[in-house]
Amino acid sequence: MTALEPRDAEVAAALVETTTAPVPAEGVLGRTYRALSIGIVSVVLLIAFEATAVGTAMPVAARELHGIPLYAFAFSAYFTTSLFAMVLSGQWADRRGPLAPLATGIGAFGAGLLLSGTAGGMWTFIAGRAVQGIGGGLVIVALYVVIGRAYPERVRPSIMAAFSAAWIVPSVVGPLASGTVTEHLGWRWVFVGIPVLILLPLGLALPAIRRMAGGPTDTEAAAEPFDARRIRLALGISAGAGLLQYAGQELRWLSLVPALAGAALLVPAVRGLLPRGTMRAARGLPAVILLRGIAAGSFIVAESFVPLMLVTQRGLSPTLAGLSLAAGGLTWALGSWVLARPRLEPHRGALMVAGMVLVAAAIVAAPSVLIEAVPVWTLAAVWGVGCFGMGIVIASTSVLLLQLSAPQDAGANSAALQISDGLANVLLLAAGGAAFAALGGGAVGAAHGAVGSGAAAAHPGAFTVVFLPMAAVALVGVWVASRVSEARVPGGTTR
């Protein structure tokens, strides 16, 4: 999955009862909300399908464009530009409403796919991924603001569960469809075909958003100017994350130069963009934002190495290795659905702690398949349990984020949540990738081509050194999860 992956698009629930929408006694598919619900769930479906389909076509694209040495930048370009776009979207939505950043983001997302799909060289392909990241960052934060403004509090857990469910079909169909298209028509059709799906979200969501949540919270007040300082910090966090990602892939002494430059940019930017107390897990909003990064970063980084481990160590085909994780989409949605049950609301804190325990257990158990005597299907079962825990935790952070945010701060706080998520993915992936390479990961990758002939790569330690530290990070998340509960703060703020 990508950083936006997410599954990263699970948006929901529980802002203070300040909303621009009427509050009739109906659900997300009632007459009042039907068009909006179908439209924004279609946006999430688009993001989910892109995340699962494009990843399958990416290796073929890089090979045909003679860009294997630049392969990692196709991913990091998306992440780094999305970090900047998240901050921009938060300010834009808070000041002018979520309609414009959402529409612009969907358009940029599609334009980036078209640019990559028609690229004649790897750098043009990477530029397309960067444009796509801008679109993804704009969309994910704007969706949070839409949910907070358009839906009453009692309905938000249900729309969140619908967002999670939107990942189920793409998780199963995406890799198969992408693999078939890539094999028979070519990888370019995967990239240029997905933008067609943009028409449905645009046609359904945007008119409903304009009607129910389109403008600023105070329509009579003059729009505040953008905060230039936060925009500069956003540029710093993107550039710093990109430099650290680059340094993590180049295991040379000279890599210290971009690493130090990245840290110099990143540290003040993080301090300025995340709530005060985030790094020490201060109770309430800071702990919520930190938990989001810990949970998403540890789990997604570990998950990114699962297919490679199954292919190189146990001889599975890439398709079977990807499908071994398909059940996770269902259990993730199930965890989110459990959270949406009203009778479980008083137990949210305990459920979050339990969810992080399941996540840590899944990560630490995953490398057991390196032992030949352990059946391969064990990993699918273990990962399904971890995804169930992630469904609970990620949905809960979305709920609490909006619950602890005043309407005028929903965009900025949502941006902080997504920055924590995306930045943790970038930093932990850089650390995990460096450790993987240091313990023979390059040889593992080289052995990939020999798997089909029955040869097995002999570097299980390269995988273990990724999974065990990520499990330790998840265990820290268990403690952070115990600190997120706090009474609602009507004047919630990002500082």
Annotate the secondary structure layout.
Blueprint: H1 6-9, H2 34-64, H3 73-96, H4 99-117, H5 122-150, H6 156-165, H7 168-184, H8 188-193, H9 199-213, H10 228-249, H11 256-273, H12 285-314, H13 318-323, H14 327-339, H15 348-365, H16 377-403, H17 410-438, H18 441-447, H19 460-481
Helix pairs in contact: 2-7, 2-9, 3-4, 3-5, 3-10, 3-17, 4-5, 4-9, 5-17, 6-14, 7-14, 10-11, 10-17, 12-15, 12-16, 12-17, 12-19, 14-16, 15-16, 15-19, 16-17, 17-19
Give the terminus-to-terminus CA distance: 31 Å
SS-based class: mainly alpha
Instruction: Report the average pLDDT across residues.
Output: 77
Sheet with the most strands, sense and barrel status: none
| Residue share in helix | over 70%
> What overall form do the CA principal axes indicate?
globular
Question: How many strand units?
Answer: 0
Order of H and E elements: HHHHHHHHHHHHHHHHHHH
Task: Work out the strand percent.
Answer: under 5%
The stretches of 5 or more residues where confidence is low (pLDDT under 50) are 1-24, 443-458, 487-495
Radius of gyration: 21 Å
Give the count of helical stretches. 19
